Amino acid sequence: ITQAIARGIKGADLQPILSKARQAAADESPAPTQLETEHIVRLYQTGHLVDMEDAARLLIGRCPDSGFAWSALGTALQAQGKNALAVLQRAVQLSPADAQAHGNLGNACQDAGDYRAAIECYRRALELEPTLAEASANMGSAQYATGDTVGAIDSFRQAVLLDPGDALAHANLGNILAAMNDFDGAVTHYR
User: Fold this and answer.
1) What is the pTM of this model?
2) Using CA atoms in the order 79, 83, 89, 92, what is the torsion angle rounded to 10 degrees?
3) Which of 4, 5, 76, 124 has its CA 20 to 30 A from that of 41?
4) Which of 9-18, 58-67, 129-138 is least confident?
5) Alpha carbon distance 18, 102 (integer Å)
6) Cα 191 from chain centroid?
7) Contact, 155 vs 143, CB < 8 A?
8) CB–CB of 155/125 below 8 Å?
9) SS3 letters for the chain?
10) How far separated are the first and last CA of the chain, in Å rounded?
11) What is the b/e burial string over 103-130, where b = at least 16 CB atoms within 10 angstroms of the residue's CB?
């Protein structure tokens, strides 16, 4: 609009530009406020998952194009043992550059028994954020479930390099190494 006015466009010639600007403003979905996001995070951190689910649903009603809102709903559903696959697919669709959203979708795929889809989600998460140890560990679990033992070992090793304190990744790696009769390697990860 500013450019049109600067070029001297006035009156009836300005009306189509104003209409486009109004339509663009109407098409934009509002974004969650900092207070709303902090509230949902606090509900998650304190284990109030039903309240988190309710808050995320309300937020989706107000901000239907918010990847955060859809991710929050998916996280709340997953944490309650509910099916979150479609919700997390929507989160990834809205926030394709969000590594955590891809990782969460991978978890939902793994919960549904679709290990190959889970692996692809974890790969995408790691492309976006190579230091996401949780995605490496989860990919190791999915790879092991598909029979890709070598891939699982590599993923678990990457996970423990990224997060040496991840006891579950160490245990999973130790279990695989023990199953392959590498007891010395297994003991290293059991410590």
Assistant:
1) 0.81
2) 0
3) 124
4) 9-18
5) 39
6) 31
7) yes
8) no
9) CHHHHHCCCCHHHHHHHHHHHHHHHHHCCCCCCHHHHHHHHHHHHCCCHHHHHHHHHHHHHHCCCCHHHHHHHHHHHHHCCCCCHHHHHHHHHHCCCCHHHHHHHHHHHHHCCCHHHHHHHHHHHHHHCCCCHHHHHHHHHHHHHCCCHHHHHHHHHHHHHHCCCCHHHHHHHHHHHHHCCCHHHHHHHHC
10) 66
11) bbbbbbbbeeebbebbbbbbebbbebee
C-alpha 152/C-alpha 173 separation (Å) is: 8
- For residue 86 the two structure tokens come to 């479609």
Q: Return the structure tokens found at 121.
A: 């989600």
CA distance linking residue 132 with residue 155, whole number of Å? 11
Residue type, 177: L
Tens-digit pLDDT profile for residues 34-84:
999 999 999 999 999 999 999 999 999 999 999 999 999 999 999 999 999
